[in-house]
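Title: Comparing notes on inverse folding

I've been comparing how different people in this forum approach sequence design from structure. To keep things fair, I'm posting one structure and asking everyone to reply with a full sequence. Here's the target:
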């Protein structure tokens, strides 16, 4: 009998718990307090109009149960916006405006019962959004195999520079390689185009979907090709770095192997005096456009580590049409100096999928258009990812125009 009574009590308690939880779920989240009296309004509202933004400062009401202040407004493109600030501060930053027009903003004080005050209505008139200055600085010009976009973005706004071409229906469609960035100086090339006149349309957009006017331009990309690897030959100059052993010749740089040790090039890690150099002939004097380089990826615990050990972090590319004893004098032209940055920003020895995607297919290192045509190239490792000078490189592709 006692067992039956205990079981009945358990069932009753469990039923009450289920009923209580079900009721709580039906009601949804509820305020901790139940004060239906609205708080007083904010006072002394001041407006500071900024590019695409407006900053509001105000005096908070003295209500003891004040929780936050909220501002509601509608952008020029019809998007409703709501911005909140806790009672620990006395300002709100309203963003997303295209600018150069006035907008009505309603400000409410809200207590812990989510009861709102009467609205305080102000008018803001932000100046033009930063995307319009980006657009004004925009330059589109021919580049090897494509189009080069440069622009200034001094406030480092999150922007999209949409580069479009017409589809078969005649509609402008953004290219998948359009630019999405927040850097202060945009310098990027979109490649993969034939060297014929092509029409492009370019527009700048921000994250609130404000758009600038459209720049329509006709550009003929410069001709480029992958220089035939059959013409590449390793060259050994007096101050070039020693390799680990004869199993890793210079020819491994252009043998088509991208992952394995036996298809990669390693300089001697025991020598850390001076920068490590490797030299090769591309077979013909060429107006270079870029080098695509695959750093060696160490297999660690079943995954490939691309920003590890001897993979280059900082390096230079040199070019010449004649060979000397290896001295980097006027015989050699500095074609470019580069620094590889890990997209994730994770500490050394830690990499995520963003890092993998950025490195597994190699990366392009562009040669400026004003650099001379050259035949012989040198790669100089200034610093690897472990902080030394030795290099570990899997493959190099050289692009350019041999018929300049």
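Reply #1:
Here's my take.
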């Amino acid at each position: 009998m006692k067992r039956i009574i205990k079981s009945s009590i358990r069932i009753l308690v469990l039923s009450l718990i289920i009923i209580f939880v079900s009721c709580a779920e039906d009601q949804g989240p509820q305020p901790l307090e139940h004060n239906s009296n609205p708080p007083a309004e904010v006072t002394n509202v001041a407006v500071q109009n900024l590019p695409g933004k407006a900053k509001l400062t105000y005096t908070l009401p003295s209500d003891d149960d004040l929780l936050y202040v909220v501002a509601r407004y509608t952008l020029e493109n019809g998007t409703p916006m709501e911005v909140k600030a806790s009672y620990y501060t006395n300002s709100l930053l309203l963003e997303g405006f295209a600018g150069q027009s006035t907008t009505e903003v309603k400000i409410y004080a809200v207590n812990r019962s989510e009861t709102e005050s009467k609205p305080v209505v102000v008018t803001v008139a932000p100046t033009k959004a930063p995307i319009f200055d980006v657009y004004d600085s925009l330059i589109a010009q021919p580049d090897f195999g494509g189009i080069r976009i440069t622009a200034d973005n001094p406030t480092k706004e999150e922007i999209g520079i949409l580069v479009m071409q017409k589809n078969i229906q005649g509609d402008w469609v953004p290219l998948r390689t359009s630019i999405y960035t927040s850097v202060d100086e945009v310098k990027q090339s979109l490649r993969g185009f034939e060297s014929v006149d092509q029409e492009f349309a370019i527009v700048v957009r921000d994250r609130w979907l404000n758009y600038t006017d459209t720049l329509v331009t006709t550009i003929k990309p410069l001709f480029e090709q992958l220089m035939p690897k059959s013409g590449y030959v390793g060259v050994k100059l007096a101050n070039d770095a020693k390799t680990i052993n004869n199993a890793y010749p210079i020819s491994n740089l252009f043998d088509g192997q991208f992952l394995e040790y036996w298809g990669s090039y390693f300089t001697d890690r025991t020598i850390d005096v001076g920068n490590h150099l490797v030299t090769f002939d591309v077979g013909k004097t060429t107006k270079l456009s870029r080098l695509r380089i695959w750093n060696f990826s160490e297999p660690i615990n079943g995954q490939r580590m691309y920003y590890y050990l001897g993979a280059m972090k900082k390096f230079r590319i040199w070019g010449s049409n004649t060979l000397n004893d290896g001295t980097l004098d006027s015989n050699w032209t500095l074609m470019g100096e580069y620094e590889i940055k890990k997209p994730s920003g994770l500490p050394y020895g830690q990499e995520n999928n963003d890092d993998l995607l950025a490195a597994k297919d190699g990366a392009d290192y562009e040669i400026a258009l004003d650099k001379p045509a050259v035949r012989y190239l040198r790669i100089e490792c200034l610093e690897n990812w472990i902080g030394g000078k030795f290099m570990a490189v899997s493959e190099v592709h050289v692009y350019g125009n041999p018929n300049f």
